[in-house]
Amino acid sequence: MALIEFHDVHKWYGDFHVLKGITESVEQGEVLVICGPSGSGKSTLIRCVNRLEEYQKGHILIDGKDIHGDDIDVNELRSHIGIVFQQFNLYPHISVLKNITLAPIKVKKISKAEAEKTGMALLERVGIHEQAHKFPAELSGGQQQRVAIARALAMKPRIMLFDEPTSALDPEMINEVLNVMKDLAREGMTMLCVTHEMGFAREVADRVVFMDFGEILEQAPPLEFFSNPKHERTKLFLKEIL
Ligand code: ADP
Ligand code: MG
Fold first, then answer.
1. What is the CB-side half-sphere exposure of residue 152 using CA atoms within 13 A?
2. Which of 88, 114, 89 is nearest to 101 (CA)?
3. What PROSITE patterns does its record include (predicted)?
4. What is the pLDDT of residues 5-63, one digit of tens each?
5. Pocket, ligand 1, Cβ cutoff 6 A
6. Of these four, 64, 77, 90, 161, which has the most CB atoms within 10 Å of its CB?
7. Span from the CA of 40 to the centroid of ligand 2 (angstroms)
8. pTM
9. What total of structural domains would you count in the chain?
10. Which range marks the domain in which residue 102 is found?
11. Sequential DSSP letters for 184-226
12. Which residues line ion ligand 2, judged by CB < 5 Å?
């Protein structure tokens, strides 16, 4: 059984049909890179997985369980699914370490001491433990995004969603974030990554998925996807971004 299954998922924003029947499955430990033109529905799709967006038709299953089932507690669901946004969305008024320990203490009822120990270990893992007691605004964009990743990991998620995590960064900071993501991928995290960083896709993606106008047009392992794109729209897209 796949870890995540999408069955004919449709979503409308008013009259606008943004997801037009997405069917896809993601195995435990798989890394999917989702790419496609702006407005094609990439963010909407991954936000459906942790129910930040509702959909009107179809089903998403995690571990075989419908995420809209009666027995699903949305907070519990979200505690297993980390999400990292383009804008880091850190809490500005508390320290970096507190950003990381807040949810484990509040949602998982972990002791402050334990949460701080884990938080420091995570900051070390993303290479910024010296910054633990600073406020987010005192950090560079790349550092803030690494805090956002550490914050998501503090909940020990089974799935990580990334929505263009490097798009708001200055070029010299992109690699420090991608390197953290590559480590995660190699450690076996199940990841859905919306990104146009095709070097990242080549290096760690198991599959590259191309979306256009609310549909998955094609998908393939990176080598095949880049060397032999099948659809004209995929070729055009690759020509524009590579
Ligand atoms: P992508 O991430 O691929 O750029 P999105 O999923 O953000 O695409 O958006 C897909 C389409 O849905 C876009 O045309 C966007 O304008 C529209 N859209 C996104 N969010 C909303 C919303 N809250 N209300 C109405 N339309 C939206
Ligand atoms: Mg988007």
1. 27
2. 114
3. ABC_TRANSPORTER_1 (PS00211), ABC_TRANSPORTER_2 (PS50893)
4. 999 999 999 999 999 999 999 999 999 999 999 999 999 999 999 999 999 999 999 99
5. 13, 16, 18, 36, 38-44
6. 161
7. 8
8. 0.97
9. 1
10. 2-241
11. HHHTT-EEEEE---HHHHHHH-SEEEEEETTEEEEEE-HHHHH
12. 43
